[in-house]
Amino acid sequence: MKLRVGIFGGSGYGGAELLRLLLLHSAVEIALVTANEHAGKAVSEVHRNLYGLTELRFTRVPEDLEALELDCLFLALPHGQALEVVPRVPAGLKVIDLSGDFRLSDQGAFERHYGREHTAMQEQAEFVYGLTETNREAIKGARRVANPGCFATATLLGLAPLVANNFLSGRVVVDAKTGSSGSGAKPAANTHHPQRMNSFYAYKPFTHQHVPEIEQELRSVGDWTSELVFMTHSLPVARGIFATIYAETRDARSESQIRALYQDYYQDSFFVRLVKGSPDINWVKTTNFCDIGFAARERQLVIFSAIDNLVKGAAGQAVQNMNLMFGFDEKMGLILTGSNP
Amino acid sequence: MKLRVGIFGGSGYGGAELLRLLLLHSAVEIALVTANEHAGKAVSEVHRNLYGLTELRFTRVPEDLEALELDCLFLALPHGQALEVVPRVPAGLKVIDLSGDFRLSDQGAFERHYGREHTAMQEQAEFVYGLTETNREAIKGARRVANPGCFATATLLGLAPLVANNFLSGRVVVDAKTGSSGSGAKPAANTHHPQRMNSFYAYKPFTHQHVPEIEQELRSVGDWTSELVFMTHSLPVARGIFATIYAETRDARSESQIRALYQDYYQDSFFVRLVKGSPDINWVKTTNFCDIGFAARERQLVIFSAIDNLVKGAAGQAVQNMNLMFGFDEKMGLILTGSNP
Amino acid sequence: MKLRVGIFGGSGYGGAELLRLLLLHSAVEIALVTANEHAGKAVSEVHRNLYGLTELRFTRVPEDLEALELDCLFLALPHGQALEVVPRVPAGLKVIDLSGDFRLSDQGAFERHYGREHTAMQEQAEFVYGLTETNREAIKGARRVANPGCFATATLLGLAPLVANNFLSGRVVVDAKTGSSGSGAKPAANTHHPQRMNSFYAYKPFTHQHVPEIEQELRSVGDWTSELVFMTHSLPVARGIFATIYAETRDARSESQIRALYQDYYQDSFFVRLVKGSPDINWVKTTNFCDIGFAARERQLVIFSAIDNLVKGAAGQAVQNMNLMFGFDEKMGLILTGSNP
Amino acid sequence: MKLRVGIFGGSGYGGAELLRLLLLHSAVEIALVTANEHAGKAVSEVHRNLYGLTELRFTRVPEDLEALELDCLFLALPHGQALEVVPRVPAGLKVIDLSGDFRLSDQGAFERHYGREHTAMQEQAEFVYGLTETNREAIKGARRVANPGCFATATLLGLAPLVANNFLSGRVVVDAKTGSSGSGAKPAANTHHPQRMNSFYAYKPFTHQHVPEIEQELRSVGDWTSELVFMTHSLPVARGIFATIYAETRDARSESQIRALYQDYYQDSFFVRLVKGSPDINWVKTTNFCDIGFAARERQLVIFSAIDNLVKGAAGQAVQNMNLMFGFDEKMGLILTGSNP
Fold first, then answer.
1. How many Cα atoms occupy the beta-carbon half-sphere of A135 within 13 Å?
2. Could you tell me the pTM of the whole model?
3. Of A264, C284, C313, D144, which one's alpha carbon is 20 to 30 angstroms from that of A47?
4. Do C199 and B231 touch (CB under 8 A)?
5. Out of C31, C61, C93, C150, which one is annotated catalytic?
6. ipTM of the assembly?
């Protein structure tokens, strides 16, 4: 018996990746996928990579969520829409939300960063934050998972072992860069090809909505009291996030000491790969891996963290969480080999 | 005394290039540049490459064109808008139109390919087709110039010597490829960076609006009776057109015979460079050059033609034509060195 | 019991793709992979996408091929090296050669196009040409398969239905474009990033080594007597081949007639997808699909064919052939979903 | 009377840019350009962008430098070669060296970072560091100029006003990113197109050779005592450097206070443009501009600095320095408009 899963919001890049992964997941059957603007159209007409691989068609979001008889519902909707869907979801139907709607337990922080009222804080309280590697046990028992943001994933996986072991002192600077798919499937000025292909620039200084999410989770991982300076930049590639994290350790540490700490922390985490030197987004693209490397000089420590923003930073991690929530091996359907080149 | 020039439609890529070229043209003063949606804004706020180089501001298209006291007016408006402007232009003001509105003398062909009624065929009759290298003398005396399309420029410069000398027999196949700036400055699905950067595809088979333009001009250059198969494709670069032209000569010809023919035909054409082997869009980008190469095998002849779609394919050729219309050296303001890389 | 396969030449891009595909192939165990210059190194040190996914190490090509007890040997060596390996391979060990060494049955054509003597024409006679879709039955029974070239694959799949049904008259022009991975994993002037990223140019006019391969196979598919004009170009993407094929049909044909012909010809060919309008390399990248589209105007017919040069154009087709040679489902291990974007 | 200038090392990208700029410089005549491996070849055969624009041919480095009767000599040689040339240069011939050979006054630092012995420290003492904006007066009177490194230029222009005014406290983190042309014109693994086009990674952590250069000059600009954490990364574009500089001010400062400080410091510096928000490498490519932007939050200050690595980061600044050394307007030949897109 396969799980019956639904995807609300299947036309964006998050939905595209969920479809790509779940179509090949041996324990899953996709029961429905919605996209209001494409309702009635073949999925493979929008995601032409899937042509020949699925007969699925997009539907509208149905009125009666009970009647769908789903086991698991993925929400890959624009920010704000899950706020309206979640209160209508039957209690027995597990939900994984890829948006930012239910990540923050601080209503004020949500409203400041997302610029909208939060109308479902009661439901929010049931959500478990879905950073698999730091929150595995809670996710196993969760009915509701708030899947992390892409920048938050790269940053948190880079910092968690240090914070959990109380290694840090002083402010932490995160210089983060993302590919253009992070801006979504809808054309816009900042993703216009003639501009973007020769472009690199910073945006949203100090104010990115992933900042409160990162700080909230660092406090949950350990005793986080440092100042966080977080800066996002745009890269002229389609996929990938690279975070360069500048920290200071309480005492001088060698790279091999740091590596040992990470090895210990991530010993059961297949998808975190500790690399020599710097990772490269080229080696994680289309995969669920987070590659982490280091450089240390006395108390100065630099951590490099690289993911595919749409996989480990979104749909891949969502499937990883689904696997845990239903008692499957965390890696099921996620052994993706990437490619060279 | 400098020429007073105006640019109508200064916010698109054609306008951007006109500004780039005319700001440094020693015989020209830009008297006004319009962009309705940006009226009042500094030009350098939209074209941030020009920040620090000009104090110009965008205006709306003025009611009274006479009062502007212009010597030359460039129209870089979306297709269809010049149809409305041109009839209002004072007789003494020279006009260079970069759109397709006045290129075709066959009203039916215009209406079929541009999908709109032609409301100014009387004015059209005054326009000289602005392919400088084939039409130089007529341009010198022209009051109205219809600047060629980008694909038409690359194709016509590749074919003109052969047609003028009646070398061809049989159908001609043109496989043409363009960079993303050819789609304009407005974001759209086909120029969305995450898609475009790994993309190559064909579009508008048999029906591209440059086809009647090319055929019209080939008939003017020589005795053109061949069938033309013309196919456009999209390249994942910002700038550049590359046309591969497959022809058959009446008799077997060596590459050096062909080269001699072109050398003769283009002996006074500084901007046509005959190269060894294949040209590369990399070597003409941001310049007004058209690089042409050949390969021949008996009666089979392949001509390669490469331009920058925004320079020789639009604004550069427009300035070249302005130079001729006002008695300047054709090269004035157009000695652009490109760059390596 | 899994098949024991070996890969000779595992460090190039062909080898990289074989590893990516065979590591996840459920009926296969990779017994060894060679790379003389990396002997002793972990495979995942060279193909860093595979880090964490395999413990394989590169070895040298062993002296005693018998002792390996392999079922299937893939040769992904530089052109010319398979000539020396194949005569040493035990009769019972099936071989799939990805190079050009054994594709041509005409020794003179081989020597002209590859610039070397053919020292194993006797062995060549045993090779079956591995274009799966046109040669399926022969491949099923083959001990030796010469895997097609990437350009040849795209071109032949585009032309086969027309030639098999004797639809064509007159010369055929193929304008083919390839991504930079087609030049291999070794850095060279034409793949130097600062140049290549803004580049498009033609190369090897009339003389590409895939020409005799294409002509040989067209003669085997049907009654091919047309002249072939074949031109290769370089695209600024990593992966993908796009062939625009210009043909003339004996009689005027509509697109739907052409489509019906192709549907019939490829009705059992999962990996050939007939698309509306033009295919796009973006939708086949990292997959084994060949996407084909058409445009027709009276007797003029244009066929568009798009593949990933390293998958359907190399390693994917090799695995497809292995599947047939060992009685597996042709699709086994090859249901690759590509990605969007 | 034009200046007679020579270029030693004209085949690399630094030489390519010098040629591009000096060919159009109205006060300059290029008397010779060397490239040992291309001696005898036309410059335009190597730098095909210059085809039709110059008849210059590459020569070998001549024995007798006196006989050349040059006014100014540019050295654009690989690191280490200027060490051998400079001692042979006649005293009256002005030299601008684009390499790192003469930038550091600390012999130990040079030898540690460049991995070679410094054999001309006596000559080094005569060199003025050529960061035009901070060193203008000294450059005017200099006979020998050590042109800054590309990363150093972007970083120093970003930090100079703060250091000169003693605004900073605590460590400074510089996260710097460069395009692929920074690795030179010679193909290498890290600039192999199939890898690089989807790549982003860090390299040379803590040890980049521009670190001592930056620290040396910051000490000359003001009272620099902070710790510098400097990290270099590779971008998948051809041109551009973007430095994100994380600093802390002694007291909380608003963005407008910071902007006023920079406006004052750079009031006579045409090539430094203070932008709103973030600069973008897209807007400085092929120009001599350095675009600087800011974000401030209490004592946290982030400075963004963007240049073209080959122009303001190399050849453009060299010409700017030449202009000063010979009493010309600093901007002469350097009003480059960039392009959009």
1. 26
2. 0.98
3. C313
4. no
5. C150
6. 0.97
